[in-house]
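We treat protein structure as text, and this decision shapes the records that our systems exchange. The remainder of this section carries one protein's record, kept here as part of the documentation:
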Amino acid sequence: MSSKAVTLPSGGSMPLLGLGTWLSPPGAVQEAMEVALDAGYQHFNCAYFDQSKADIGEALKRTMGEGRLKRDDLYVVSKLWNIFHAPQDVKLASLETLSLLKLDYLDLCLMHSPMGIGNINGELVPQKDGLLLHSDVDTWRAMEKVVDKGLVKSVGVSNFNVSQLERLLSVCRIKPAANQVELHPYLTQPELVEYCKSKGIVLIAYSPFGCPALPCPLGENSPVPLLENPTMKEIAQKHGKTSAQVLIRFHIQRGIATIPKSITLARIMEKAEVYDFHLTRYESRCWKD
């Protein structure tokens, strides 16, 4: 009923449904990867900050070693963490990522955020004051060179707003292929979605069910969790689906890739069953409150 992949401006296609790994417990990612591969997932999303690349690498190595999948069957995404934004660090960080993932190239590498901070003894989030800031433009130019060397097929960004994208587009040699941001019915970001669409930049939605792991700034006035939203549950019941499946469909139906996280067999399998129903125009717009 809809495409299962989207074409990137840099060429090639990316599966719209992927498996995210953020906040997965240590040791659980490898098992989740095995289950997802058996369930037909091809798109896998990780990041230096997640500290899960070694587990992902083991799962990919086993899968390809057993002949279950070829490298071309997989779409692997990682991110350049903020402490590696200095141009001289970009290639080294890419090589380290590939070593941990046991791959020769990444399908897509994203700048994790526009903010580059000083690398202080490899601390993920340095606590010292007066950190050196690196220009995202300089970082981007170094990422373009990583593409030239064949270490990465496509490059993109994450957590960029419209003005930040405009700055990159005004100077880039290789256009950002994708922008990965938080997107869901409580945070639809219509201006950003429309802008990316107009520029041919593919959107990847993280936290498609909202972000219950993080505190809501509204406190007691925060909305009902998306998975428990009464309207959401009503729509899901109408289609014979779960709220999670409807939320994934919300993105895929609009050509937006999404990377829900799960580490359990049943839920990983469930989230793959999103191509056999269609949300109406009303259903895709009615659950913002």
